[in-house]
Amino acid sequence: MNSFPGNGANLTVLGRSLNSLFGYVGDGIFQSAAEVAALNQPGAYIGGLRILDVNGDGKIDASDRVFYGTRDPNYIFGVNFDVNYKDWAINMAWQGVNGGLVDNTLKHYQFTTENPGSNWATGVFNTWSQTNTSSPNPAPHDGYGTLPDTYFWESGSYIKLRNLAVSYVVPASLLSRVRMKELRVYLQGENLVIIKPRGTTLQDPETAGTSFPVPKRYTLGFRGSF
């Protein structure tokens, strides 16, 4: 499931990014013992992750691996807006990423027995069971099998309101009473809004490999002269 630059023989990748992802494709969850028995997949169990049988031979092995994406985004963008009206000023900065896949490491913590003592992911509370067969989250087990798949990878796309600042210049007629020449008061917020693709379970695609999203920050301040 790691980056796959090729093996120098039959899987050299001419013209393909070194950040290409090569591995097994997720095909949902095993719903019954019959489904498990119908596919020779190592580590398979009812409620567990099912791998796509790419070549249709009834078994899952190395020949079922494919290139399914890349870590590289299609593009990164940003835009700034400045609005001034009389004594008021507003600055707004948006930044985003389009495309690319990121590893949702928190999904690994849904498999509770593989992470004893860990702070489990919230997906654990909505896992597959006989009464919850529509859940996309596999049932907890001693292991999810030896073939992790695309289930753990999600879109790295997002749009963020990186900065929003509102400032006000106090009129000189008011400042003269306190013998000030200039006073600007401002309120600034960072990382206030995040927009993600539908289906993304990551709290913040930008920090997919860590436990915490980029924090919101608020600043209230002033700048003046006498």
In percent, how helical is the residue content? under 10%
Name the shape in a single word. Answer: elongated
Query: End-to-end distance, in Å?
Result: 62 Å
Strand content: 25-35%
Q: Which residues form runs of ≥5 with pLDDT under 50?
A: none
Name the strands of the widest sheet in spatial order: 5-6-9-10-11
> Multimeric state of these chains?
single chain
The strand count comes to 11
> What is the average per-residue confidence, as pLDDT, rounded to a whole number?
84
Which class do the helix and strand fractions yield?
mainly beta
Order of helices and strands: EEHEEEEEEEHEE
Number of helices: 2
Tell me about the biggest sheet?
5 strands, antiparallel
Number of domains: 2
The radius of gyration computed from the alpha-carbon positions, rounded to a whole number of angstroms, is: 25 Å
List keywords for this structure.
226 residues; mainly beta; 2 domains; five-stranded antiparallel sheet; two-stranded antiparallel sheet; 2 helices; 4% helix; elongated
Give a nutshell description of this structure:
The chain is mainly β and 226 residues long. The protein has two domains: 104 residues, no CATH class; 96 residues.
Explain what you see.
4% of the residues lie in helices and 35% in strands. It has 226 residues and is mainly beta. It folds into two domains: 20-71 and 103-154, no CATH class; 75-100 and 156-225.
Write the layout of secondary structure elements.
Layout: E1 20-23, E2 26-29, H1 33-38, E3 49-51, E4 66-70, E5 75-85, E6 88-98, E7 101-103, E8 153-155, E9 158-169, H2 172-175, E10 182-195, E11 217-225
Antiparallel strand pairs: 1-4, 2-3, 5-6, 6-9, 7-8, 9-10, 10-11
